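Changelog note: in this version the structure field was regenerated for every chain. One regenerated record is shown below for reference.
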Amino acid sequence: MIPADVAPLAGYTVGVTAARRAEELSALLQRKGATVVHAPAIRIVPLTDDTELHAATSRLVAGPVDVVVATTGIGFRGWIEAAEGWGLGGRLLRRLGDATLLARGPKAKGAVRAAGLDEAWSPDSESNAELLEYLLRSGVDGRRVAVQLHGEPLPGFVTALRDAGAEVVEVPVYRWTGPADPAPLDRMLDALLARQLDALTFTSAPAAASVLSTARDTGRYDQLVRVLRSDVLVVGVGAITAGPLVSAGIPVVQPARARIGAMARELALELPARAVRLRLGTREVELRGQAVVVDGELRPIAPAPMAVLRALAAARGAVVSRQALLAALPGGGEEHAVETAIGRLRTALGEPRLVCTVVKRGYRLAMEPAA
């Protein structure tokens, strides 16, 4: 059980990779008690002056279009605004009004309606897969289909439509590049590898791909994947976002609905549920990222004593040697570093007897050893 008077994410450090709406997500997590580390993994580049978007729009308005797929609200709005700036707004709206409009989710649906248009259908799952299934079931052979991309190509989606006989016009409304300043992302990767982050959040597939490619380019890919598979909770806003991570064999927790608020709530449930809970003497102790909750009271703990506590907790009351505890310390050190960490741990726990000294052997927690 999560202590009722302790915020669910208190004591945890959560990484935020979002470029857009990062402040909103960070605020949601901080209200739940988390310490947030923000490192944008990508930079969104609007294509209002881009020749590729202009060419796609000109090609689209040159003839009738049968179906238009709107995948994101911000992308659809940006497309209309860009077309108006080029003097193509009226022609584009007329083509869209004559077409069957499909919207991937509520935000895309809202943007369609804000443009004075009506969507014919929108999937409950908000997924591209369900959109594609609907299109193929409806029949696209000989039809002209425009697909508004959401920041990266959709090769499987587009290929399936073309294989089914459709003429597909891809509309790249914005694109992603690496972050303007790569230093925060580099520091976040270091923190992940040092186990200083407890969870990592993603709100877009390009951000997930960027984190993995940055790790690969800097020789840290294998180590990062190991950490994300075991020590860090990875949370994605939806299935599309999770795609690059799942392909790398990294488990990703996702909310039932692809919303930032739902993602924050899911994280606030999942992370505390994974906490280690112990009974030490008469005390109930819960281990969090860089803190413990002792009988409902949150107590911050520095990295070295926290590393010692985790090693002792893993032993479940058995004795852990000084050498083993030394190996668990961040950066290692000499044997007296273990004694220092033990002293700081006892102070942080508020009751020295919770960590027992076993003469000439090491230390153990004040609990009955597991059978």
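Spot check on this record: The domain at 13-42+179-273 is CATH 3.40.50.10090 (Rossmann fold). The first strand starts at residue 13 and ends at 16.
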